[in-house]
Backbone:
């Protein structure tokens, strides 16, 4: 059985991995990313100075919604009934918003893709809401920080 999420069968076609025989376990994944912008843009986010609304609250909602739809967005990704999704934002400096997502499920497969999707869409939402005043925004460092549950065990990113 392959350890990755996709597998090429004898015909060369990819297919969804069969998780039918895997045990249902509690699984968790944490992911993070950064959005770098001009200091004035970050100040406006903090001051809730955008006509479209509170940038971080809209980004939080977008990230949660995206996590729930990951199976529809990523080919061959299993749709999962998520137990919980949280997104947190912090300001690392005068130009950087840090995004952290945690996703939990009790299922036969993990939620790494859901956590990464939540961070990615939250970051894209920040860009969308701020692009009128700052087209130079950079989305960076989206990565899996931790995952637990399942056969592959516990992973924590070093550093």
Residues:
């Amino acid at each position: 059985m392959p350890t990755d999420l996709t597998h090429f069968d004898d015909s060369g076609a990819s297919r969804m991995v069969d998780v039918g025989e895997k045990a249902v376990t509690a699984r968790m994944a944490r992911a993070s990313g950064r959005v770098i912008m001009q200091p004035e843009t970050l100040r406006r986010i903090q001051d809730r100075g955008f006509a479209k609304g509170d940038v971080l609250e809209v980004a939080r909602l977008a990230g949660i919604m995206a996590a729930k739809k990951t199976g529809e967005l990523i080919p061959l990704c299993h749709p999962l009934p998520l137990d919980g999704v949280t997104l947190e934002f912090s300001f690392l400096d005068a130009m950087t918003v840090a995004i952290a997502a945690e996703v939990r499920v009790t299922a036969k497969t993990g939620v790494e893709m859901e956590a990464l999707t939540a961070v990615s869409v939250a970051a894209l939402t920040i860009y969308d809401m701020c692009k009128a005043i700052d087209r130079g925004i950079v989305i960076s460092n989206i990565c899996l920080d931790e995952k637990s549950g399942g056969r592959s065990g516990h992973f924590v990113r070093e550093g």
